[in-house]
Write a structure and sequence with these properties.
The complex is a heterodimer of chains A (742) and B (223). Chain A contains two helices and 42 strands. With 742 residues, chain A is mostly beta strands. The chains are: A mainly beta (742), B mainly beta (223). At the A-B interface, strand 35 and strand 41 of A face helix 1, strand 1 and strand 9 of B.
Chain lengths: 742, 223
């Protein structure tokens, strides 16, 4: 989605340096050109400096080698193309258009079959965005090696002990459905499993996690808050087979390369279901007729067709199932709970690159199924097969329209789904709404039928250097919901200013829209897009090698939020706003990996015109994460400290007994007028590797909440609301596992 | 909703009294006898209440008011409900947007001390409360209401009543031991040595289609 490769000097050519005139003869056509001293920097895709890269250019014996900070200095004539080479990395190219070639991005040979051609801008980053790779994800203590759990360390992500739902990520004061989780550029409907709070993707099958909390490119859409992009792992040059097992699950992964084709196949199965029945006390009125279990699959095949075309076929899928009875009597259908959550996504992508042209083509299909049955009366059974073709064309020009380093981008996609839904449930509780009395016979919301959801999008953008230090990106995205006959026009812009060689300031502003297709929203063909307008100002400071400090402040205005109207239907009457600030400091040096993030946020909602402003249900004013990991020889040690505010909740003031339905109707205080207390915990992780014959083995011990701080997560009430109890955070959670790589 | 099974698995119910616990102050049920009355007929209200540290009580409400429709506010006198004339019922149907001939729901607010409840009495037709049939406790027919039931300690004592769980609402409540499957027609009680060895056992049967309810209460002891 972010385009192919590229990475070069977006801020080259200081204004006070002579600029070669367009009519000036090329160096190879003229007398020997004057050599100037050119400096630059070689980095990887995560922005880390690459030491020892060889820099040269054709027709000269001038060479240079990048230092530990990735910096190099070479004498070269204007207009020449320098080549940057490093073992294990793709070759990088950069045009000398001035005395500075800042950042030449080299991709690892095993990360993609794409070539690097340096002619456009540096990789796009929004203020507050971050990218971490697999090895770093696995080093974050307290995650049990789970990639998506590492998201809780990101500034702006609401942190709590339990995941918030299937999509599960609350970013910058927005509802989970406002942000999208993408795998290889396409959305997945489920992020967590029902049990174990595990992500559906094991760390070993992921290459990178890119976190964009807001202000994202026009190529991303259907989200009004943030984007989480997971990229599956392509096969390495060296083929391996590996297995990993822990108390939660176990998996196998095979990857490697055969000629021009790279492959990765992964499979994982839960193991906790094998021990769960034995740890439930016999006195509990429970029958696990289908023990909660899950299966995950991932594969990715990359094929380099020729010098210009790269093909990829990838898939992720999962299935979660459980059936239980809240009694030992399995004939008691009123006590039955059944769930099956499954999806499979298959994506075929073709990427073309030649000279200034890049083309991304993709066709992705999604087959999701969600069934939840509660007792004899309530159920939801939904399938929504969806097909998404997408095309994007990128063209770069050194100069155009009087601007330099120009990049044009045009794209379009269609997302066509057909939903088959059988629904018999109580009224859906939306964000900010209080839970009513639970009546297992309440089927206020009923529907049985099919409907189509054809959505279309087009986008275009232009990015260019306004001068040697300032780069502007402007774009427009159009999203259309054919069924609801609604069009969303989303202009977005970004300004990057290189304040000093180590400081970059970024300002983004734009419109972002989410189609109302989440859960019961799909039943209403009159709903409009939910809207957000984001303004983000960020500073990035890199004082030394491997050290990066990012600070950002943002304001998000929300409107057209989907809320329940007085008649029980859904409408677009809600409004909201979020203001916040974030800090992220990372250090990667030698054996050390450090991470410090802090976020402040204040998020409010007004449900209907004239209603009082209230706190957003996931409003979390303070969140601090500090992690440090040290690797030496066969040992890796890490610790992480978390400190974050509790979430708001609405206390119950009283309740009235409904004698006919035999239940109590709660009377609530003002919405979200109370807050759970602050939580803090310390997590540690120890990894130890050794060799057993041809097998590289690593065992790990990951312990969450080592000093067993049991904070209150929330409160729940008894059946008549006269008694309440605190739902406390889980005590110490040890996770142990072993991984073997052959 | 998602976490309901998790709460079951985690046993996270803390020190909150379970719903079957009879040693807990509350209104257990409001009964109208009968729950549906034709024009001009009367129905009598009574309550079954429980109190912490005390036995259950069957008593008339301290106060009863009409919540809806207010045009029928005069139908209540003390704990007696009198269905108005057909003409008044027809007017009430119009007010509530009901089809002609259907029973009119008279929603009542009922108070007993500091406790409150709502109850609907249906006006315009005649339906009686359900009847407890074939109540079996510990393999034997249940004794008459008020007669002592003795159960062995540390033993699952099974109980049942004729009822379809998918239609009727059953409640087995006790202040002696632990009740399992309290809301199924077939339940069982288990009294351990550290449980209260004496108390009460109550059985309630509700018909949510008609608003009818009936109950029986027995003293119970583990011996």
């Amino acid at each position: 989605m972010l385009g192919l490769l590229v990475g070069a000097d977006a801020f080259a050519q200081p204004a006070d340096e002579p600029t070669p005139a367009p009519t000036e003869p090329a160096p190879d056509e003229a007398a020997p050109a004057k050599l100037i001293e050119v400096t630059g920097r070689v980095i990887d895709k995560l922005g880390r400096p690459i030491r020892g890269a060889k820099v040269s250019y054709e027709g000269s014996d001038q060479t240079a080698t990048s230092d530990k900070g990735g910096r190099f200095r070479i004498k070269a004539p204007l207009g020449v193309t320098v080549t940057v080479e490093k073992d294990g990395m793709e070759v990088g190219l950069a045009n000398v258009v001035g005395p500075t070639i800042d950042e030449v991005v080299l991709l690892e040979l095993d990360t993609t079959g794409e070539k690097i051609e340096i002619s456009g801008e540096a990789p796009v980053e929004a203020p507050g965005a971050a990218v971490i790779d697999r090895s770093e994800l696995q080093r974050v203590p307290g995650t049990g090696g789970d990639v998506v759990k590492a998201l809780s360390a990101m500034p702006g992500v609401v942190n709590q002990q339990l995941p918030l739902g299937y999509s599960g990520v609350v970013i910058r004061g927005s509802s989970p459905q406002d942000s999208k989780v993408l795998v290889d550029d396409f959305e997945i409907p489920v992020l967590f499993h029902n049990i174990g709070f595990r992500a559906i993707l094991p760390a070993e099958s992921i290459e990178t996690l890119e976190y964009i909390p807001g202000g994202f490119d026009v190529g991303y859409g259907r989200a009004s808050s943030g984007i989480i992009q997971l990229t599956t792992r392509p096969g390495d040059d060296k083929a391996t087979e590996q297995a990993e097992i822990s108390v939660i699950d176990g998996g196998l992964l095979v990857q490697g390369r055969a000629g021009k084709t790279r492959y990765m196949f992964g499979f994982r199965r839960s193991l906790i279901d094998l021990i769960l029945p034995s740890i439930i006390p016999a006195s509990v009125d429970l029958s696990l007729t289908t023990v909660p279990s899950y299966y995950d699959e991932q594969f990715r095949i990359d094929h380099q067709l020729d010098a210009h075309w790269a093909l990829t076929l990838s898939s992720v899928g999962t299935i979660d199932t459980f059936e239980l009875y809240a009694t030992k009597d399995t004939d008691a259908k009123t006590k039955r709970f059944f769930n099956r959550t499954a999806f499979a996504r298959l994506t075929a992508a073709a990427k073309y690159h030649e000279g200034p042209w890049s083309v991304n083509l993709a066709l992705s299909g999604l087959l999701p199924q969600f069934i939840f049955e509660i007792g004899e009366f309530q159920k939801i059974d939904v399938t929504q097969p969806t097909v998404t073709p997408r095309a994007e064309v990128i063209h770069t020009d050194k100069e155009a329209l009087g601007l330099k380093n120009v990049e044009w981008k045009l794209g379009a996609e269609a997302q066509v789904g057909r939903s088959s839904l059988e629904l018999a449930l109580p009224h859906e509780q939306r964000e900010g709404e209080n839970m009513g009395a639970y009546d297992p016979r309440d089927v206020t919301e009923t529907f049985k039928g099919h409907y189509w959801l054809p959505d279309f999008a087009q986008w275009g953008s232009i990015a260019a250097n306004l001068d040697d230090r300032i780069r502007f990106t402007g774009g427009l995205r159009l999203d259309e919901m054919e069924r609801n006959e609604k069009l969303a026009i989303q202009p977005r812009g970004k300004l990057e200013v290189k304040v000093t060689p180590t400081v970059i300031a970024r300002l983004t502003a734009g419109a972002f829209r989410r189609p109302p297709e989440y859960q019961s929203e799909g039943l209403y063909s009159t709903l409009d897009f939910e809207r957000s307008t984001q303004t983000i100002l960020g500073l990035q400071y890199e004082p030394r090698e491997g050290t990066r400090v990012q600070a950002s402040a943002y304001y998000t205005d929300r409107s057209n939020l989907v809320v329940t109207e007085a008649d029980g239907s859904l409408g677009n009457d809600g409004r909201g706003r979020t203001v916040g600030a974030e800090l992220l400091a990372t250090y990667r040096g030698g054996p050390w990996f450090g991470w410090l993030s802090y976020s402040y946020s204040h998020s409010t909602r007004v449900d209907h015109p004239g209603d009082p402003e209230r706190l957003f249900t996931y409003d979390q004013p303070h969140s601090l994460n500090a992690a440090l990991s040290w690797k030496h020889g066969k040992w890796q040690l890490g610790a992480r400290f978390q400190l974050y505010s509790g979430l708001p909740y609405t206390p119950v003031k009283a309740a009235v007994f409904d004698s006919d339905r035999n239940l109590y109707i709660p009377i609530y205080d003002e919405t979200n007028s109370a807050r759970a207390p602050l939580h803090h915990q310390l997590d540690i992780r120890i990894d130890r590797s050794w060799k057993l014959g041809a097998v590289d083995l690593t065992w790990f011990l990951d312990v969450q909440n080592v000093y067993m701080n049991e904070s209150v997560v929330g409160y729940f009430y008894g059946y008549d609301y006269t008694q309440s109890a605190a739902f406390k955070s889980l005590p110490i959670i040890p996770s142990i596992g072993v991984r073997g790589v052959l | 909703m998602k976490y309901l099974p998790l709460l079951f698995l985690a046993g996270c119910l803390g020190d909150i009294d379970p719903e079957w616990q009879l040693d807990h102050t509350r209104i257990i049920a409001v009964r109208a006898t009968p729950p549906h009355i034709p024009a001009g007929a009367t129905s009598q209200l009574d309550l079954l209440t429980a109190a912490k540290g005390a036995t259950t009580a069957q008593l008339a409400p301290d106060a009863t008011i009409v919540v809806s429709p207010m045009s029928l506010a005069s139908a209540v006198s003390g704990s007696t409900i009198t269905a108005p004339s057909e003409d008044q019922l027809a007017a009430a149907r119009t007010e509530l947007g009901l089809m002609p001939g259907v029973p009119v729901p008279l929603q009542l607010g009922v108070a007993s001390g500091s406790l409150a409840a709502t109850k609907i009495v249906w006006l315009g037709d005649a339906v009686d409360n359900p009847v407890l049939t074939n109540v079996v406790i510990g393999g034997a027919a249940a004794p008459a209401a008020g007669a002592m039931i003795t159960v062995p300690p540390d033993t699952d004592v099974h109980m049942s009543v004729d009822a379809d769980d998918s239609v009727m609402l059953v409640d087995w409540l006790t202040s002696c031991g632990t009740m399992h499957d309290f809301d199924l027609h077939a339940s069982y009680i288990h009294v351990e040595t550290d449980d209260p060895q004496t108390g009460e056992l109550a059985l309630l049967l509700r018909d949510p289609r008609t608003g009818g309810v009936t109950w029986e209460v027995w003293p119970i002891a583990a011996q």
